């Protein structure tokens, strides 16, 4: 079974998922790389994981999920041998 991040992540959880520090998360928000967090209550903010994925996917040079996978392309082009 594969684990996935929760739908809404704390700064610490988001930093772990992105393999960066919490300071870097806030810097990325300030620069517009990551979306603003959602304020749930006083002192409690979370990032929507789907929004984070969309923001990161829109970065130039970043492969999106519909990009061509060279392994799959080779498998599709292979001829069956018996």
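Q: What amino acid sequence fits the structure above?
A:
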């Amino acid at each position: 079974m594969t684990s996935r991040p929760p739908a809404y992540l704390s700064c610490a959880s988001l930093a772990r998922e992105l393999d960066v520090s919490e300071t870097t998360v806030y810097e990325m928000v300030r620069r517009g790389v990551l979306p603003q967090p959602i304020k749930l209550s006083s002192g409690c903010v979370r990032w929507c994981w789907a929004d984070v994925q969309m923001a990161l996917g829109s970065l130039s040079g970043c492969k999106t999920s519909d990009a061509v996978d060279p392994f799959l392309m080779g498998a599709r082009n292979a001829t069956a041998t018996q």
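Q: And what stands out in the fold?
A: Residues 8-63 form one domain.
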